């Protein structure tokens, strides 16, 4: 036998050690740049109205969201209001806000905002009813959620 | 003795775990930032004194259930016209401001409006009233709110550029970044010069 061993045939395996690093990088990017989805929508997917003069909603933890839209069941007509995974009546909004307030510190209550996510086909009457309820219990900061900037698509 | 070759640790399963986590985050999270038109609702008080407001200081906007817009009771307009109309109305400056702290009212020296005596006296007196039908669609309602907001923003912006050589938007951003008192004063001054007074009377049934 010769002193020099013959080299093994075939290519050596490609090292995949850096693959986890890349995936972890992606993972961290998504962890940082996204937020947890809070509720499952029981309504039809909401088509948001557009607006140009918008403000970003900050302090996510101080925001309570009210969804307004049509029911998934096509037989049920009219606007439905959803909070926290269930469909409620307008009259139940104060109790929802109170339960939200109970979870926050007292000094934070005055910074709490109610975000109204309503479908652009919804009736203004429903929105005004909600606003009236919010006024009654002094939850005065509201934000009307919008998406996009082309206001011609609103009507 | 022959040197043993360093065998590599198989890291393939590590990638699998990372992928699992990644997919979990992809599915359970949302990317969008919530943005919208913010409004402060008027406080509810039982004993609001009856204030007599001159008709000329109110800009009446009425929307009916067919999404038609009527301004001042007789003019049908498009949504895109509202910004112009609102700006002309707010910025008219035809008279004196309300007397404040015992000082008599002053004319609006920063207004560039037509000074029409039949339109609003002063930005601090100009009220925009938006009455909608219960059947108006929300999209239309938001569009009008947006146009009114745009009118105020443009007026504030104009004054900001003239007085501070900075746009209102920039000032707001600077304040958010630095939190400085000086900028806050400027913003407050602009807001006071063109205060947003929007009234929403009971909807038409």
From TrEMBL, chain A:
GO biological process: protein transport
Species name: Lutibacter profundi
Cellular compartment(s): Cell membrane
UniProt superkingdom: Bacteria
GO terms under cellular component: plasma membrane
Entry's Gene Ontology molecular function annotations: transmembrane transporter activity
Protein name: Biopolymer transporter ExbD
Membrane-crossing segments per the record: 12-32
One Pfam family here: ExbD
Family to which the UniProt record says this protein belongs: Belongs to the ExbD/TolR family.
Bilayer topology annotation: Single-pass membrane protein; Single-pass type II membrane protein
InterPro entries for the chain: ExbD
Keyword annotations of the record: Cell membrane, Membrane, Protein transport, Transmembrane, Transmembrane helix, Transport
TrEMBL record, chain B:
This protein's record includes keyword Protein transport: yes
Protein name listed in UniProt: Biopolymer transporter ExbD
UniProt keyword annotations, A-Z: Cell membrane, Membrane, Protein transport, Transmembrane, Transmembrane helix, Transport
Pfam families reported for this sequence: ExbD
TM ranges: none
Biological process (GO), any one: protein transport
Compartments, as annotated in UniProt: Cell membrane
Similarity-based family: Belongs to the ExbD/TolR family.
GO molecular function: transmembrane transporter activity
GO cellular component, one term: plasma membrane
Membrane topology, from the record: Single-pass membrane protein; Single-pass type II membrane protein
InterPro entries: ExbD
């Amino acid at each position: 036998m010769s002193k020099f061993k013959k080299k093994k045939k075939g290519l050596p395996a490609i090292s995949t050690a850096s693959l986890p690093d890349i995936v972890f990088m992606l993972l961290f990017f998504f962890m940082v740049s996204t937020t947890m989805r809070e509720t499952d929508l029981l309504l039809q997917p909401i088509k948001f109205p557009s607006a140009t003069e918008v403000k970003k909603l900050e302090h996510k933890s101080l925001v309570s969201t009210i969804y307004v839209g049509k029911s998934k069941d096509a037989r049920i007509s009219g606007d439905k209001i959803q909070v926290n995974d269930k469909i409620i009546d307008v009259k139940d909004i104060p109790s929802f806000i109170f339960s939200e307030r109970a979870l926050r510190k007292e000094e934070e209550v005055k910074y709490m905002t109610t975000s109204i996510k309503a479908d652009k086909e919804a009736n203004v009457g429903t929105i005004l009813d909600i606003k009236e309820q919010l006024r009654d219990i002094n939850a005065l900061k509201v934000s009307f959620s919008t998406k996009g900037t082309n206001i011609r698509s609103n009507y | 003795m022959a040197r043993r070759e360093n065998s590599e640790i198989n890291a393939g399963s590590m990638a699998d775990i990372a992928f699992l986590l990644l997919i979990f985050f992809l599915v359970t999270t949302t990317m969008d930032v919530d943005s919208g038109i913010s409004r402060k609702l008027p406080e509810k008080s039982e004993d609001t004194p009856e204030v007599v407001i001159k008709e000329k200081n109110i800009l009446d906007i009425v929307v009916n259930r067919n999404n038609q817009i009527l301004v001042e009771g007789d003019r049908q307009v498009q949504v895109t016209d509202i910004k112009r109309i609102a700006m002309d109305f707010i910025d008219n400056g035809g008279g004196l401001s309300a007397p404040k702290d015992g000082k008599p009212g002053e004319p609006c020296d920063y207004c560039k409006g037509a000074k029409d005596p039949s339109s609003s006296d002063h930005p601090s007196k100009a009220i925009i009233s938006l009455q909608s039908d219960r059947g108006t669609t929300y999209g239309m309602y938001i569009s009008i709110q947006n146009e009114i907001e745009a009118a105020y923003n443009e007026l504030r912006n104009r004054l900001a550029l003239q007085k501070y050589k900075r746009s209102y938007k920039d000032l707001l951003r600077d304040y958010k970044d630095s939190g400085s008192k000086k900028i806050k004063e400027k913003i407050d001054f602009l807001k006071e010069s063109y205060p947003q007074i929007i009234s929403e009377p009971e909807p038409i049934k």
